[in-house]
Amino acid sequence: MGVQKFIRAKLHGIRVTDANLNYHGSITLDPEQCKLVGIMPLEFVDVWNKNGGARISTYVIFGPAGSKCCVLNGAAARTCQVGDEVILVASEYSDSSNLLKLKPKIITYKDNNEVDEVLYYDVDQDSKGDMKFEIKKCLSF
């Protein structure tokens, strides 16, 4: 099948804490939370607003550690309101033969952007070669 785009990491349900139209652009996130799933500064991510439906692509910058921040900056600030829940996805391109090795980590959130759970997606194959998909809980994070 060749190279395809796969999910690598996801922040699911993080709430927007600020929107700063006069900043140069990007999304500001807590580096401690990014570290849990492997999101890096300057990495491009997709942001999907659960409240308004807007979908954008931007890059990550780190805010203060422990801040639980999610700040949409520049033009991205027009796509979200403070308090909106967003889904943020980092992707990677890989050969489909690597699918079984991918174990993307996902954070789910409580209302105050405190981490609720750290999960991962697990794809496996049964003896017939059919794909199986499960969401599993990370035992340590």
The number of helical segments is 1
- Number of β-strand runs: 10
User: What structural class do the secondary elements suggest?
Assistant: mainly beta
Strand order of the largest sheet: 2-6-3-5-4-7-1-8-9-10
Envelope shape? globular
Spell the H/E element sequence: EEEHEEEEEEE
Rg (CA only): 16 Å
Largest sheet: 10 strands, mixed
First and last CA, distance: 34 Å
Helix content: under 10%
Structure notes:
It is a single chain. The chain has a ten-stranded mixed β-sheet, with helices on one face. The chain starts with a strand and ends with a strand. By secondary structure, it is mainly β. It is globular, with a radius of gyration of 16 Å. The mean pLDDT is 94. 5% of the residues lie in helices and 51% in strands. The chain contains one helix and ten strands; from the N terminus they run βββαβββββββ. Strand 9 and strand 10 form a beta hairpin.
